[in-house]
Amino acid sequence: MKKILFLILIINSFNSNAQKKSLTKTEAPKTDHGYTIGQIDKNYGAFVNFHSDTMNKDFPMLVFLPNGYKESKKEFPVIYSLHGYNNAKLTEDGLRAMMLPETGCQEAANEYQVIIVCPLVGNHYYIDSPIYKERKFATLIGVELVRFVEQRYRAIKDRKYRILQGFSMGGYGAVSLLCRYPETFSTALSRGGALFQQALIDDLNWDDASLESLGDFFENPKIYHQHSIVNLLNKIKERTDVAIVLEVGREDFLYTGNQKVNEKLKTCKFPFIFAEYPGGHVWSKNALHSMLVHLQYFVKTKN
Questions:
Q1: In this structure, are residues 85 and 25 in contact, taking their beta carbons and an 8 Å threshold?
Q2: What is the pLDDT at residue 11?
Q3: For the domain that residue 198 is a member of, what is the CATH number?
Q4: pTM (predicted TM-score)
């Protein structure tokens, strides 16, 4: 009888410890510079390898087509969705680990009746590097990707319906590419954009992605100024046929830089929206939805 009681006590103790371990094993989801990284879903979005003739290199891309695309002959607006700084490998799995169903891309494509194109191109700030001449990431997005998409999909071939959208480094990409290619695109949407490199360098000592394209800031301050959003906006400040949306969280470490760009936008003739939200530097389906809601003020895509 004593042996039986002893065994029961051991089993109960084991079960109790197992339950405690299972509770403590509930880990927070993995994150990568604002992205939630999780289990990939190969049925979410259509994977395409996009080849750059300029750089003679392939880049992975996900495309989300709106419902009704296959059944109709209609042409659709295109959202060129530019990612932020990340540690993902340039592979299908690397891209899918970032673009989870929780990002809401397919739902957004359906609701707003747009094609959403999500390339993964590395951490180069979407710049044609003046230092490393072989790195032409502005040309990649602003010329090659647009041509590829419009040859392969039923996209509206009109600058009004080509929209740039980006998070973090991709926010810089969206706004800078609008400044560089205003005859190609009409609108840039930025969420938590890394728009003010001077603040990143001086305040945070964080310059990894900039180094990939512009070299060392202290050796090349003029180059950094030339590629700053505040300076690039001078290219389009007199236009009235472009638009910019800046969204940023009040706890985002990039908040101050976004405020500075907002002040510059007030001197431009084109319409813009500057919106603040609670929270920090996070990409989510709510961020994408908010940006596409703001887009409707300038380019109506939703029926």
A1: no
A2: 39
A3: 3.40.50.1820
A4: 0.87
